[in-house]
Amino acid sequence: MFPAASLLTTLLLALSIAASPVEIRDSPITLPIARRLNTSGGAINLLQHDQARATALKSVGDSTLSRRAGSIAVTNEAVSYIAAVGVGSPATTYNLIVDTGSSNTWVGATTAYVKTSTSVDTGEPVAVSYGSGSFSGTEYTDTVTLGSGLTITQQSIGVAATSTGFTGVDGIIGIGPLDLTEGTLTNEPATTIPTVTDNLYTQGTISEVVVGISFEPTTTEAVTNGELTFGGTDATKYTGAIAYT
Which one, of 194, 157, 147, 188, lies nearest residue 16 by Cα? Predict the structure, then answer.
């Protein structure tokens, strides 16, 4: 049971080392996210779930296996955070799970990938296994749209030929570190794939390789109550100073 006062949690992913992380009051890049609650397994304690997931992700990050985006330890997928992301031109909108524990972005689990003039088939097989599912397919590069018309050109995406464990969503937008993409291209296992955040940085849209995530706890099955902030943190979403570990 949540207390009457609404709690606000802000998670900051420092994907590169920055001496003075940027704080943004009016972020130029924000993407609303909806928290979906899965109660199919009965009553759950969301606080315990979030704490367990944070512990699991920290363990993965400390492990030498963290360089292989193969198996991610997730024991109870009680909640997921969904962002509407456009791919192609004109864009098709896909509802993608926002995943801090993986770094590949892919579509096609439910809504089929729609090729447009910006779609380029690289011919590279791509596959990722997660603790709660998997996908395999082909790598494309395409235009990805976040928020109100913000576009990333030539973003690598996976187009699923098969997937398991992703009922009701279209795939994943991975915002973890770059090295988690290593090993996901079947024929080039040593190659890493620039993430959405990496390309926002290299294309000059953001000045820091940092993503801020804010969300409020919820007891409803679907509600838009959070946002991603690319390039820094939104200082209106928290009080005090952020501690980096």
Answer: 194
Give the residue among 234, 127, 103, 70 at the shortest CA–CA distance from 175: 103
Q: Do β-strands 133-146 and 92-99 pair in parallel, antiparallel, or remain unpaired?
A: unpaired
Distance of CA 237 to the CA centre of its chain: 19
Return per-residue pLDDT of the chain as tens, 245 residues.
333 333 333 344 444 434 444 444 444 566 667 656 554 444 444 455 455 555 554 554 444 333 322 222 222 244 677 888 999 999 999 999 888 889 999 999 999 999 999 999 999 999 999 887 899 999 999 999 987 657 899 999 999 999 999 988 999 999 999 999 999 999 999 999 999 999 999 998 888 888 888 876 665 555 666 788 888 888 888 889 888 77
What does the block give as tokens for 227?
A: 């946002």
Residues, the chain = 245
Please state, in angstroms and rounded to a whole number, the distance separating the CA atoms of residues 7 and 9.
7
How far does Cα 76 stand from its chain's mean position? 18
Please report which helix (H) or strand (E) contains residue 99, including its range: strand 92-99
Number of C-beta neighbours around residue 188 at 10 A: 15
